[in-house]
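User: Teach me something about this protein's shape.
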Amino acid sequence: MVHLLCLPTEIRDNGLIRWNLWLVNGDRRVDRVNVYSGAPSAQILNSGSSDYPGSLRPIPPGKYRLGPIEYRAEGWGPGIGQYWVDLLPIAGTRTYGRSGFGLHLDSNYHTPNGRGSAGCIVTPHQRDLDRILGWLRSQARPTYLEVHHTLDIGEVRSKYTVDRVRRAWLELISWCEGTSGPDGYRVCFTGVKFDGFQDHPRKVHCAGRLCSDAAGKYQFLSSTWDECRKALQLPDFSPDNQDQAALYLIDRRGALENIDKLQVANALDKLSWEWASLPNSRGIGRYGQPVKTLDQINAKLSELLKK
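Assistant: First, the predicted structure itself:
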C-alpha cells in the first residue's frame, strides 16, 4: 500500500524542526521531501494531552486521510500559496480539539516573524511542494499520511556522495572563504593554523574589531559545527567530515539539487545566506561583507569543473 510517512529529525532550520516526509510503497521508502510543522515558538513533540486548540504545535501523531488537491488562484492566505490538501484525522487519531490541518506552501519561511505554520505540514520550496503534489496526482496515489513524533535516526546519519560537481562547489566555497590550498582544512579565522583534527579548535581570533572562532576549509563556527556533528554523527573534525558537514549545510539550505544541476543563480541565492563571502544572484552579499563578483564565481567554477 502506498502512503506518506512524516518523521521528525534532530535537525533544526531557522528555529523549526526539520521533518522527513517520505513516499512509502509497501515497506520501502522511495522518495523524500523536507517539511516543517508548527510555529517556531511551539516546537514541542509528544505533547499528548497537554496539547490544546490554538497551541501552534506540530501536527499530532496518528493517521490522516489525504483530501483532494485544491487550487485557489488568489491563494489561501498570507504565505500559504495557491495549493491546499486537507489532512483529516482518521478514527483513533487524537488531536485534542485541534483541526484545520493541511499541507501547503510556506512562502514566509525566510521571514523571522512569519515562518512555520499552525500545525499544518509545510515546505518553503515550490519545487518540493510540486513533488508532493506529483505523488498525489499519480495513479498510485498515497492513501493516507502517517505521522510519528519519534526521530528518523537512520536518515540523519546518512553520508553524502562527493562527486566531481560537488567537489567543484566545495572548492569554490573554500576559495571564496580564503581557505583554498592544502592547508585549508586547518585554517582558523585570520589565517592562524591549528594542529590535529580531533575536534573543532574552538579558539576565538580577532582581526580589528571582528572576532570569530570560525575554522576549517568552510569556516565553521563552533556552534554550526556542533549542529553538523550531531546531525551526521561525525566523530572528528577531519577533512572528510568537514566536506560532509559543508554538504549538509548546502542541503539544509535546499541547494543540493541546484549545485548538482549547476543552477548557479539559484544556488547562490540560497548559499549566500550560509557563507558571507558568496554573493546572491544579483552579485550582492547578504551581510555587508566583501564578496566575489558573479564573473569571478562563474570563471572559478568553470575552472574547477575542468579538473
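Now, about its shape. DSSP finds eight helices and ten strands in the chain. The two ends are 46 Å apart (CA to CA). If you'd like, I can walk through any region in more detail.
User: That's plenty for now, thanks!
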